Structures are given as C-alpha cells and as structure tokens.
Amino acid sequence: MTDNTLLAMLSTITRVSASLSLIGSIGIIFDTIRKHRRARSATAVLTSSRIILWWTTADLVYVPAVFLGRAAIDAGSVDSALCSAQGWMLQFSYTSSALWATMMATSSYLVVSRRWSFAEVAVKERWFHVVAWGVPLLLATVPMLIATGSNEPFYGAAKYWCWISRKWSAFRLITFYGPIWACFLYCIVLYYLVGRRVWRVFREIKAMGTIVTTTAGGSMTVPTVASSIAPLHAPALPAHRAIAEPPRLHARHRFAFKTGLYLVSFFLVYSAATANRVSTFINPDRPVFILEALQCLFLPLQGFLNAAVYFSTKWLARRQGGLLQGSSDESSEPDVLSANASNVGRAAPHMAAITVRSEAGPLLAHFAAAGKAVDAGMGATSCVDDDREGSIVIDDDGESDEEDEESQLGMALHR
C-alpha cells in the first residue's frame, strides 16, 4: 500500500474514535446535568462525577481538531491560522485531559488516605481548575508566542494533523509527552497508596463477613460481630432472618475503586502513543504501522472510555451483592439520617439503637447507629459505616452514601 493509502486509513481510524468519544462525552454531560438539576446543591453531585464532567469537557476540545485531520496540510496551508488553531487545540486538550486524570487521582487519595470528606474536596476543587486549565494554557500558548517571527511556525505539519512542527519537535517531549508521563507516574503512586489501604480494609471486612437481617418491610446490613439491639419506645419488630451477604466496601473505598477505573482508561489512551513515540525515536525512518494504528485508535478514544467507565459503574452500583452496590451517582432527595452514638437517645420514636462491638480492629470498633422502624411498604434500609467513629449514614433509598455525605456537608458550605 502507498503512503497516501496508509494515511487515509489512519485518518479514518482517528475519525471513528473521535466520533465514539463525542457520543460518550455528550452522554456523560447530559447525565451529569440531569443529576445536577435533581440535586439539592451543587456539591450533591458526586466528586467523581464533577471531575469527570470537566475531564469530558477537555476531551471535547480535541474532537473538531481530530476531525480536521490533514485537511490544512493537504491544502498546503500549514502556515494558516487554521493549522495553528488545530495544533493549539490538540496540545491544550490532551494535556488538560491528562491533568484532569491527575485531579481524579488526587481526590481519591485525599478522600481515602488523607481522610478528607467529600465536601472538603469540593472546596479545594477551585485549585483543580487552576491547574488543569492553567497549565495546559501555558504549555500550548507560550511556545507558540516564542516562535512568532520564526521562519517556521510552532504549529505546523505533523504526520496525522497539524501539531508541533518538526523544527520545534523537542517541545513534543517538553510540553506534551513529558507532562503526560509525569501525570501518569503521579497517578500510579497515588493509586498504589490508595489501593494498599483499600485492600487492607477489604481483607478485614471479608474476614469478618456481613449479615443481612431481613424483616417484613425491608433489610438492614450489619457486620457479623457481637451486637445488641435496644428498642427506643418502639413496638416489637416482625420476625426476621439472617442471610449471608458478600462484603461491601465503605463509600470512600468504593469511590477509590471507581476513580481507579478511570486510570485504566488513561493508561490505554497514552500507552499506545508512548509505544509509537519510542519506536519512532529508535527507528525514525521505519515506522511501525500497527503502532501508528493503535495510537490513532486510542488517542482520540478517551471520551468513549471514560463514558464506558462512567455508565458501567452506575450499572454495577445497582447490581445486588456487588462491591459497588449502593454507590449510585444519582440522588432522588434521599431521606438521610446521620447519627452519632451520643445522640441516639434523641432519635425519633419507633427507632432502635444498634450497638456493635468489633474484634476486627479500629476500623469498625465502637460502631453505633440509629435505624428506622420498618413500616408497611417501606423500601430496604441499609446501614453504612461512614468511617467516623460512632457515626453512621442511613440511606433508605438504595442511593449513594457518599452522595448523602456530600449533600449534608455541601449544603452547609452554601449557607
């Protein structure tokens, strides 16, 4: 096949991938807007959903640039404003996308390892915007201004589209591959720290096991540890039975699991481009077509892969018995009660105080909560440890407990 035929094939691959990313990105944006309209406050939309929204916005910037392909090059207009605009959009959007992946990893680390609340992360998100938009703006604009007046513009003919021209090819490493590889290594380190903690906690929970206590009106999930139930002005509960249930992770750890999946998509996108860049550096005159095809396939595919993670985790959150059960991103104004052990006596009538003594270590020690009495027709009620000693979030609609915490703390921030 001729070089023109190969270039046409590569151009087709990039446009197909960009089309899939466009569809996926639009789906994420519409779903996030829908949740935002139903939420009680801006911070009631999950941290991961807010970050993926801005990440998706960054991905949308490169879609028109990818669709242009080699149009300006084939027309002999490499010195045109169109070619410069295309190169700038690609440079800005890809580095911004990598930095939003870094912000996702940072939020996961702060929540799981540093024990920040979701609302505290929301307060700091303004700095996420400064970094994820400001740094790419500088990397894409400053070199172009430096090259002004040169006999060859900074953004010119590259192989697949207008990008950093050959004369300024050193900046491909300085302003593109270098920052992206640094972001990826940073994410690896953070997710290692997060994963180590999540795995340790999960092993403790798995060793302990869980029990689902089913009543006439609903169910309550509690660890299989020594416990006592003392009624507070409540009638006797209906007969119930205990059913073994697979262990479920705490909200913080499910959050880490979900955000970790975005790192996988980030790796897929840039690993092919990295492999092709290394191959080109070793043998610049002998490009490997399969590596070029993989780069053209995966590099514009970030939006689609993010959408795959976004919607698959929503499905897993609704799947019974899974680790992500109860971590849905949606909220339909859940009736949430956050009770401290010292305040159980003030709970409303028809409630029961649950005291649990754990032998599995400090994570579940002194676990206490208040549970709603089961009314006829009421949905399932689950007790989820919110990782603060003597405190629990009770979510009676099967929705996300991490969103419940954000709803409470976030509303306080906006008062």
UniProtKB/TrEMBL annotation:
At the top level, the lineage of the source is: Eukaryota
Membrane topology designation: Multi-pass membrane protein
Q: Which SUPFAM superfamilies match?
A: Family A G protein-coupled receptor-like
- Chief location: membrane
Q: What biological-process GO terms show up in the record?
A: adenylate cyclase-activating G protein-coupled receptor signaling pathway; cell surface receptor signaling pathway
Question: Where does it localize?
Answer: Membrane
- Where do Acidic residues bias regions lie? 387-407
Q: Which UniProt keywords apply?
A: Membrane, Transmembrane, Transmembrane helix
Instruction: Extract one GO cellular component term from the record.
Output: plasma membrane
Q: Where is the G-protein coupled receptors family 2 profile domain?
A: 8-314
Any one GO MF term held by the record is: G protein-coupled receptor activity
Q: Where is this region: Disordered?
A: 387-415
Q: In its keyword annotation, does this UniProt entry include Transmembrane?
A: yes
Q: Which residues cross the membrane?
A: 6-30, 51-73, 93-112, 127-150, 170-194, 255-273, 288-311
Q: What is the designated name of this protein?
A: G-protein coupled receptors family 2 profile 2 domain-containing protein
Q: Which organism is it from?
A: Allomyces macrogynus (strain ATCC 38327)
